[in-house]
Structure formats: C-alpha cells, structure tokens
Amino acid sequence: xxxxxxxxxxxxxxxxxxxxxxxxxxGRYEFADCDIVNTIVREFQEETYYAFPFxxxxxxxxxxxxxxxxRDQETGNPTYLAMLVHADDVPFIKxxxxxxxxxxxxxxxxxxxxxxxxxxxxxxxFLPFKEVQEVHFKHFGYRLRQIYFKWFPTKTQ
Length: 157
Description:
Elements lengths: L5 E8 L6 E4 L3 E2 L7 H12 L8 H4 L6 E6 L6 E7 L12 H14 L11 E7 L5 H4 L4 H10 L6
Antiparallel strand pairs: 1-2, 1-6, 3-5, 4-5
C-alpha cells in the first residue's frame, strides 16, 4: 500500500543487529487460492499477522493501480504476486505498526513450536519516497527492488 509520500513495507532484522532488509507483503500463489484476488488477501493477511482483516468481498471494485506477477515459465501459472493500491482506494485498511506488532507477538506466544532464535524481528514501517536512497535501497529484498523500479522509477531521482 502506498500514498503520495511513500509506501508500507515489512522490515526484517537478521540474526545480527546490523543485518536487516525491507520486503513487500506479496507472496506465492497456491492452487487452493483459486484466483489472484484470494492470493492477495491470504498473503497480505499472513504477512501482517492478520492485524488488518479484510476479505475478497472488500476488494470488489478496488482499483488495482499496479501489479507484479511472476509466472512459471513452463506452465504459465502465477507463482508470485504483488499488488499495490493507493491508501485512498482502501480506506478500510488502516496500517498501524502497533497493531502489527501486537498481533505478531500474540502469534509467536501462541505457537508452542516457536523457537525465537529462528524468528528475526519484523516491523511494519512506512518508508517515505524521499528516504529511498542508497542507505535504504541496499536493504531492499530482491522482489521489492524489482517492484520498486517497475512502479516508482521516478521516485529515486
């Protein structure tokens, strides 16, 4: 999700304090999703720990301003999808880092198989376009880097 000033990303810290990267809230298409819109909803919910609940029905009529689909070269089936919507188009989703962290903590605490050493810290952050300089850009994950240059090529100048 983005607005005229920047976009929301997940910031993932590595095992060492100086290791971290930004990633998007997209993900892999699964056959059980049946269609791309279901993939969008499922992946967004999973990536944000269900902190911002909405359904496929909520997306009816929402303008998809930008999308990025990676397809299997042999089958042509979608394997990865990211969709970007302007915040004005989805007023029912209020991105809130505190809600994200609260849901994340509840999820980790309720999982008896959680080995905290294997789960780096995640934060939901708003990244202003003006801050996407070399300092932040070098921490973009592979997909986010591709998506950013496809969707916002003029924002880094």
